[in-house]
Amino acid sequence: MPADSPLTFGQLSTWRSIETFAADRLMEVNVPALWDVAGLAAPAIYRALHELARRHEALRTTFHTDADGRPFQRVHTEVPFRIDRLALPSAGPEDGARVLRELYAQPFPVTGDPGWHGVLVSSGGSPRYLAVSMSHLVVDVWAIRELEAQLRESAADPAAADRRGPGPAPRELAALQHGEAWAGHRRGAEKYWKKILDSGPLANFPSPEPRSRERRVQATLRSHRLAALVAEAAAVNGVSPQSVLTALTGAALAGVLDRRRTMLSLMCANRFDPVWQPVISTMNQLVPLVCATDPDAPLTAFLKRTHLHSLLAYRHGSYDVDTATRLAAEAPGPDGSLFVHDCWFNYVTEPAATGGEPATGLPAAAGETPDASLTWAPPARNAGHPFYVRVNGDGAHWVELTIRADPDLLPEEDVTAVLRTVVLGALRAATAPERTLGALLDDARTAPLGADLFPREREVVPG
Q1: Each residue of 86-125: b (16+ CB within 10 Å) or e?
Q2: From CA 63, how far away is CA 6, in angstroms rounded?
Q3: Are residues 152 and 220 in the same domain?
Q4: Which of 154, 177, 200 is the last residue of a domain?
Q5: Is residue 183 part of a domain?
Q6: pLDDT of residue 227
């Protein structure tokens, strides 16, 4: 019999975000993945998928609204199993990518739908790829990667699922977050939000002019040398690599906007508690972080301050988004404007695919470091936030910085300046951390950078 429950804080944040998307942009909240299943038999794959749905309530959940318009989740004993089959004469990476693009482009109904489907691509009678697309209401990136690992384990060893036991349930987490045991967490988050709203700024950009179709530009910088510099800068300054890039992004934004304070919205995975770390659900929430950029401050002091403030922000990364919205409405700016998440920062430690293949580390030959590359390509997503930074990397050998921006608010030359500031900042943080933040911002657009850090030419991928 179906069981109803309030949404978790992560689900509610995703729900409110989806409400801002136009109907023709709903596919942009899908989470796609292409799993290489070569060597696995089709019956084993189907058995493993059914086992995943049995273990994880998120794969048997639909979302609804009550008579007052409040969202809730409904967990079913089973849901329709939507895995199509596609047989091709041959199936290479480009075929899998094409199937995934087509699957990703299909939006899910927000209410009354399980929010996931897939296509099993076979060649010569044998499975080759499993393309899956899931609503962000169902999973986040961590969860969909965990599902892949569990599918492989279960397909190879049917007894593995029994050893694991049932996974933690989102509705149990929802009961905890809304209950008395979580009251201290909720009060702490409210206190943090009030402080942020009092200190400002409430937004970095003015509201864009209305237009018929939103558009974004996207630039991706890939560099092996930068990864080494970020790791070195973290060690020299006693902070994390993530904090190095967070701080430098805040400084770079301050530089192009010519302001002393900027507000970043950090994507918080909210998987710190070992009890809830393995839950299959959407846990991500945006938590605001103020970056104060004193031009006379040494770069090392700025990095350390941002590191401490980031830790505090992540501590309060799980919160009731409706309460935060209410607090924001009670604290408008002098001009009546309200808080908005307009500059997102997302740090992902798992390596990202590059050119359809997993990224690799530095070449074996001593001293051989590949040149950096800068690629401008049409983004998969156009709606929503006007400035978004995503960092992918393995934390040691390579890093990939992607910036997606509204060109009416941040033109391409400023996007390039942001990337150059981050790169030059990492270099100085590693080699001259006592130099001032102001000197970094003054030099960012013109300082010479080696080809291993910033390319002389950029690659443009046509739309």
Answers
A1: eeeeebeeebbbebbeebbeebbebeebbbbbbbbbbbee
A2: 10
A3: no
A4: 177
A5: no
A6: 94
CA dist., res. 73 & res. 135, Å (int): 14
Q: What is the pLDDT of residue 396?
A: 73
State the CATH number of the domain containing residue 444: 3.30.559.30
183 vs 321: CA distance, rounded Å: 15
Q: Is residue 318 part of a domain?
A: yes
Q: Cβ-count burial of 50 within 10 angstroms (0-12 exposed, 13-18 middle, 19+ buried)?
A: middle
**74 part of a folded domain:** yes
Does one domain contain both 347 and 225? yes
Are both 217 and 348 inside the same structural domain? yes
Claim to verify: residue 122 and residue 198 sit in the same structural domain: no
pLDDT averaged over consecutive 10-residue blocks of the chain (463 residues)? 94 94 86 95 95 95 96 95 94 94 94 96 96 96 95 87 81 97 97 94 83 79 94 96 97 96 96 95 97 96 98 97 97 90 88 39 52 91 84 86 94 96 97 97 94 88 72
Q: How many domains does the chain have?
A: 2
The bridge status of strand 116-123 relative to strand 353-354 is: unpaired
Give the type of residue at 342: D
Quick one: 224 and 155 in the same domain?
Answer: no
- Going by their DSSP bridges, the two strands 343-348 and 261-268 should be labelled as parallel
Of 215, 190, 143, 245, nearest in space to 383 by CA: 215
Whether the Cβ atoms of residue 137 and residue 63 lie closer than 8 Å to each other: yes
- Could you identify the residue written with the tokens 């937004």? 203
CB atoms within 10 A of CB 169: 20
Tokens of residue 397, six digits: 């050998």
Structure tokens, 108 = 């899910």
By residue range, what is the domain housing residue 412?
A: 190-460
70 and 148: one domain?
yes
The reply to whether 117 and 30 lie within a common domain is yes
The CATH number of whichever domain residue 128 belongs to comes to 3.30.559.10
Residue 412 lies in a domain: yes
Closest to 245 measured CA to CA, from 341, 142, 40, 389: 389
> Phi and psi dihedrals of 175, rounded to 5?
-60, -40
Find residue 346's DSSP bridge partners.
390
pLDDT at 413: 95
Buried/exposed 216-249: b ≥16 CB within 10 Å, e otherwise: bbbbbbbbbbbbbbbbbbbebbebbbbbbbbbbb
pLDDT of 349 reads 76
Residues 374 and 407 in one domain: yes
